[in-house]
Amino acid sequence: MSQSWQFWALLSAAFAALTAVCAKVGVAQINSDFATLIRTVVILLVLAGIVAATGQWQKPSEIPGRTWLFLALSGLATGASWLAYFRALKLGDAARVAPIDKLSIVMVAIFGVLFLGEKLSLMNWLGVVFIAAGALLLAVF
């Protein structure tokens, strides 16, 4: 089961849900950008511990330049996403913010097709439309 991408994706969704609920409570008394900093430091410490404990450290000099570039861009996008997400949670209800945030699923499908050459079937596109419609229904009405 731990080798299944579906298992890890579902686990990711569960933790993302907990993230929204915990972040909404955590951001209530402080600035949303500072809350994001605290979250980031916790993530850094936990991941450093995991990498060290499992012996997964790699020499930075052995990592290709293209990998560095895209991981850096991913990190910048993650940081911007987290800052925006925490600001939205500070201002709005978690039950309405999270669905709008999950419109990223729709954007990933579109970007995957446009930039990564991925192929989606008609049923896949129907699912993307339903996700978009559901997110908007949850957030707007």
Structure description:
- This protein is mainly alpha-helical.
- It has a domain at 5-101.
- It is 79% helix and 0% strand.
- It contains six helices and no strands.
- It has helices at residues 5-26, 32-54, 65-91, 94-101, 104-116, 122-140.
- Helix 2 (32-54) packs across helix 3 (65-91) and helix 4 runs antiparallel to helix 6 (122-140).
- The chain is globular.
- It starts with a helix and ends with a helix.
- The mean pLDDT is 93.
In short:
With 141 residues, the protein is mainly α. The protein has helices at 5-26, 32-54, 65-91, 94-101, 104-116, 122-140. It is 79% helix and 0% strand.
How is the secondary structure organized here?
Blueprint: H1 5-26, H2 32-54, H3 65-91, H4 94-101, H5 104-116, H6 122-140
